[in-house]
UniProtKB/TrEMBL annotation:
Protein name, UniProt field: 1-acyl-sn-glycerol-3-phosphate acyltransferase delta
GO (cellular component) term, any one: endoplasmic reticulum membrane
Keyword tags: Acyltransferase, Endoplasmic reticulum, Lipid biosynthesis, Lipid metabolism, Membrane, Phospholipid biosynthesis, Phospholipid metabolism, Transferase, Transmembrane, Transmembrane helix
Source taxonomy: Eukaryota, Metazoa, Chordata, Craniata, Vertebrata
Pathway as given in its UniProt record: Lipid metabolism; Phospholipid metabolism; CDP-diacylglycerol biosynthesis; CDP-diacylglycerol from sn-glycerol 3-phosphate: step 2/3
Length: 376
């Protein structure tokens, strides 16, 4: 292990990175809160400010992936589709099998200039996660309860509000609704069998209602669906803790651009269309497993310096007061103050560890896990 790699794996380094992320994140949340009066005067101005504030926060995590861990993200796509990326609104359909799939998605958002405005249909529980969840609230992220009776109006209303959104955005939809585990796969394949649908090897059976409601409500606003399939070379199983440790991963993303007009309006036809899409995605994954690559040419956008510059800026801004505080603390010689600070630091690390836990598949919810969820 090289010296730099050894440094990256040190707990003290992690503590510093997390400190910068959390404290700057809370500060950004506060700035977002201050944009509330602006909403009353100019909604579009408030939205544009929030897009930039969100960029300041999410690009720190992107910088950690791209510059700290040096993870390589390769894009497989047709050149005629590539020219549209970042220049139109789109619905992104992505497989949900990795702890850091959302972060790889963010990396591509950053490279195509839509990171600050990127959106997702997220489970409601994530809105309570400090920093990221609170940021999403101001970014008009669409939350769902994964209860269709409530979601059908809730999600539709939130999507309608995006019709006058002032900047290009990608709206991410994990149609599988939860992360892939062997148990959830087994349960969802029972549902597939009962519906006479083919067995999927690499995906859970997609939930079609959220897709249908999204497509219907973003018609006229989104131009296309980006069917995206993510995998990692050499069977890597990336984690956020691994990224924090400076481990380098190799992500491959295959994207097909499908104009929204090609997607059926009728709910049943739209559901059948999505099932067929997932059967195709499954065959791409199988091809990747067999050959180590996706179909189509590689047209990767390079990582940009912006995420690194933003990260260095916030690090300087946050580490300076920390340095002043620590110097004052040590020179005061007060044992009580030092103990209180240590207790505070320990509590903060437990809090950050909990946040990182939200990304871990082994802490995944029970949604889709139980036979009782079978609506058959
Ligand atoms: C060029 C580069 C391109 C791309 C780059 C890639 C990406 C970048 C893009 C953007 C990045 C933006 C942000 C990323 C940042 C962070 C993201 C982080 C995380 C958030 C993710 C989540 O929170 S995922 C969880 C929430 N989302 C969803 O659940 C969406 C999918 N779900 C649905 O659509 C659901 O339908 C619903 C939520 C709307 C409603 O849920 P409900 O439970 O009520 O489901 P259903 O009504 O669908 O269930 C009943 C039907 O399902 C059948 N059933 C029952 N059991 C199962 C089972 N185990 N598996 C499958 N199906 C099942 C049942 O039979 C019913 O069938 P019907 O035929 O009657 O529909
Ligand atoms: C720059 C240094 C930063 C270091 C510190 C990083 C700390 C930040 C930690 C976490 C940010 C929270 C991001 C939450 C995104 C979680 C995405 C996710 O995958 O959600 C799961 C959901 O889809 C389905 O849930 P279930 O599978 O049903 O359960």
């Amino acid at each position: 292990m090289g010296l730099l790699q050894l440094l990256k794996s040190q707990f003290l380094c992690h503590l510093i990175l997390c400190y910068v992320f959390v404290v700057s994140g809370l500060f950004i949340n506060l700035l977002q809160f201050c944009t509330l009066p602006v909403w009353m005067v100019s909604k579009q101005l408030a939205r544009r400010i929030n897009i930039r504030l969100a960029y300041c926060l999410s690009s720190q995590m992107v910088a950690m992936l791209e510059w700290w861990s040096g993870t390589e993200c390769t894009l497989y796509t047709e050149p005629q589709s590539y020219r549209f990326y970042g220049k139109e609104n789109a619905i992104v359909v992505l497989n949900h099998s990795y702890d850091i799939d959302f972060l790889c998605g963010w990396t591509f958002c950053e490279r195509f200039g839509v990171l600050g405005s990127s959106k997702v249909l997220a489970k409601k529980e994530l809105s309570y996660v400090p920093v990221i969840g609170w940021m999403w609230y101001f970014l008009e992220i669409v939350f769902c309860k994964r209860k269709w009776e409530e979601d059908r109006t809730l999600v539709a209303q939130s999507l309608q509000k995006l019709h006058d959104y002032p900047e290009h955005f990608w709206f991410l939809l994990y149609c599988e609704g939860t992360r892939f585990t062997p148990k959830k796969h087994q349960v969802s394949m029972q549902v597939a069998e009962s519906k006479g649908l083919p067995i999927l090897k690499h995906h859970l059976l997609p939930r079609t209602k959220g897709f249908w409601v999204t497509v219907q409500n973003l018609r006229g606003k989104a131009a296309a669906v980006y069917d995206s399939t993510l995998n990692f070379q050499n069977n890597e199983k990336p984690t956020l803790l691994g990224v924090l440790n400076g481990e380098k991963y190799h992500a491959d993303l295959y994207v097909r651009r499908i104009p929204l007009d090609l997607i059926p309006e009728d709910e049943a036809e739209c559901a059948a269309w999505l099932h067929k899409l997932y059967q195709e995605k499954d065959s791409f994954q199988e091809q990747y497993t067999q050959t180590g690559r996706f179909p189509g040419p590689i047209v990767s956008p390079p990582r940009r310096l912006w995420s690194l510059i933003n990260w260095l800026f916030w690090s300087c801004l946050m580490l300076y007061p920390l340095g002043v505080l620590l110097t004052g603390l040590i020179s005061s010689g007060s044992m009580l103050s030092i103990i209180v600070s240590l207790v505070f630091c320990s509590a903060a690390s437990v809090g950050v560890r909990w946040m990182i836990g939200q990304t871990e598949i082994n802490k995944s919810s029970n949604y889709g896990n139980k036979e009782t969820t079978l609506n058959i």
